[in-house]
Amino acid sequence: MVPKETKERYEKLKAAVNHYRTKRHVFDIEEISIEAEDALKQELAALETEYPALVAPDSPTQRVGGSPLPQFKKVRHEVAQWSFNDAFSEEDIGEFDARVRRMLQIPSPVEGLGTASTVEYTGELKIDGLKIILTYEKGLLKTAATRGDGAVGEEVTHNVRTIESVPLSLERPVDIIVEGEVWMSERTLKGLNKTQEKLGKPLYANPRNAAAGAIRQLDPKIAASRKLDSFIYDVAKTSEALPKTQWEELQYLRGLGFKVNRHAELLGSVEEVINYWKQWKDKSKAEDYWVDGVVIKVNRADLQERLGYTGKAPRFAVAWKFPAEQVTTVVEGIALQVGRTGVLTPVAHLRPVLVAGSTVSRATLHNEDEIKRLDVRVGDTVILQKAGDVIPDIVRVLTELRPRGTKPYRWPKSVAECGEDGRIERVPGEAAWRCVAKNSFAVMRRKLRYFASRGALNIEGLGPSTVDALLEQGLVAHFDDFFTLKEGDVLELEGFAEVSAKKLIESIQKVSKSVPLSRLLTGLSLPHVGEETAILLAQKYESIDALAQENVEALTSIDGIGPIVSEALVEWFAEKDNKELIKRLKKVLTIVYEKSSAKKNLPLAGKTFVLTGGMERMSRDEAKEAIRRLGGNISSSVSKKTSYVVAGEEAGSKLDKATELGVTILSEQEFLKLIA
Questions:
Q1: DSSP-assigned letter for residue 251
Q2: Looking at the 3D structure of the chain, how many domains does it have?
Q3: Domain ends where: 456, 487, 513?
Q4: What are the C-alpha distances in Å from 30 to residues 36, 278, 283, 330?
Q5: CA 402, CA 333: separation in Å to the nearest integer?
Q6: Which active-site residues does the annotation give?
Q7: Could you report the per-residue pLDDT of 34-51, keeping only the tens digit for each?
Q8: What's the predicted TM-score (pTM) here?
Q9: What is the pLDDT of residues 568-613, one digit of tens each?
Q10: Does one domain contain both 457 and 586?
Q11: Long-range contacts of 651-655 (CB under 8 A, 24+ apart)
Q12: Most buried by CB count within 10 Å: which residue of 240, 269, 578, 604?
């Protein structure tokens, strides 16, 4: 007997797959991705396997379809490590080629006439593994390190030495630093997971995770047993003459004894670049290693040098990713998650599904307006993809598969985690809802986690799980409680011994002796106060008491502080509980105040900047650091008080606002001249 609901689901699946297949193969129209269509087919086949009586002659299954780990020594890279900018379409590659030509002053080819000057590229497979930097002295392997943050990585020499394809000595006694990728084959992963399963241990989701885990083993015998492999693709520095092209560089590396991927090609035009990508988009699955795109580089080294780097990536290269993997799944429920400021985020609970190499069972729905835009309901079949290959994102609801009787999602009147009565309210003028009670257990847990995090007070060793354990044991309830903890208190927590407990207390006490006001204001989770606003306030006020006594008018007069923030701050500091909290924090913390007088004589003192668009010569964070170093302030919004708007590539609405208000607009070149 086939349940009625199952039969209805089967009929809808069959009709949907036949519809999409016809559109794709008969009319050449792709309404959903191939991956999403395949996911529907897989569900259909699973139902037919479970209920053979369902199999129909017209079923699609019956026809042929047309952060550095602390336990490792840190290594400062002699040569900075960059990441590539990404491209996702033929249009992106066309823009990349045009930008290269523009900067090199090479005319674009004229259709039918060609051009006397061309830019030659190399195409290389983008291996999805773990980046590794190898340093050799006199031809002998000295160190191997991970990329880390680009400036500092983890030394993993003892594990990399176990990889057979990494030479311990080179063909010549050269001093050289090379870059490459460590990877694990699909075949090795399957064998490893069989062993993990026998031992009752968790399985690895994909070869990338398995390779990274092997490289970060403290015992090199474990790394050796994982049978890792490598490809080397770049010379960062060498004591010999550098090759004149990227193509010659690959041959140079091979000549020294490194394993170089054999699928690199010389590409003489944008058309050849596109064909190379299309070819490997289809062929990559046949390789025993994961490939998630292709890397395109200007071939000539002298042109690479002329093009240079932006703040985070080379201008002469781009990583062209393969399409994001999409699958279908079913929304089994929608729950509300409480944030540290009490704001509620709707989260879709999904039927677990494998997407881009990992199993996903949750996806954020952002806010009430997004739920209405998608019209997503419990029971709906949705297309899920990983945005940027990281964040699960629902991109579409397949309404033709919607079960009968489903209803639009409605926000509840109360949420249990929001305190005793659980009342919630919509934030005026926003799409967000929040708890009416401001200090429920769920809200305080998130606040305490954030207070200790890297973005706030940065207390080493006080991660989310430790904060949760302290909270659940009743050892902390407020921010100041962290600084009254003793070793004996921490020993009550699971996983802590005398040494680790002592280390955590020392870390907490070290932070307490010097807390910048800006970090404290950030960590307090003040309403509407992020990092930039906290810095502005810390530069203006020489004590937290002075800030607490300020009125709305005075706060609003500060460049970058608007009336909404000002009113929220005055209300927060006026509350009795918050006044008591500040008194307690002053007893356990040494708060470091930034003297405003120290910046009076700096070149940009009194100037407020707004940054919009991308910059080529430096990153957004580097630009902010330069402005602050010279005495200037940074705001996230444009107003009449703004001194300058720095407009980079693809500047947005802030540029329009600056033009409307008559604010001085600086190009990247003008900004660099100003801060020089």
A1: H
A2: 6
A3: 513
A4: 11, 17, 21, 22
A5: 14
A6: 126
A7: 778 888 988 998 898 899
A8: 0.46
A9: 899 999 988 889 999 999 999 999 886 654 566 788 888 888 888 7
A10: no
A11: 651/612, 651/613, 652/612, 652/613, 654/610, 654/612, 655/612, 655/613
A12: 604
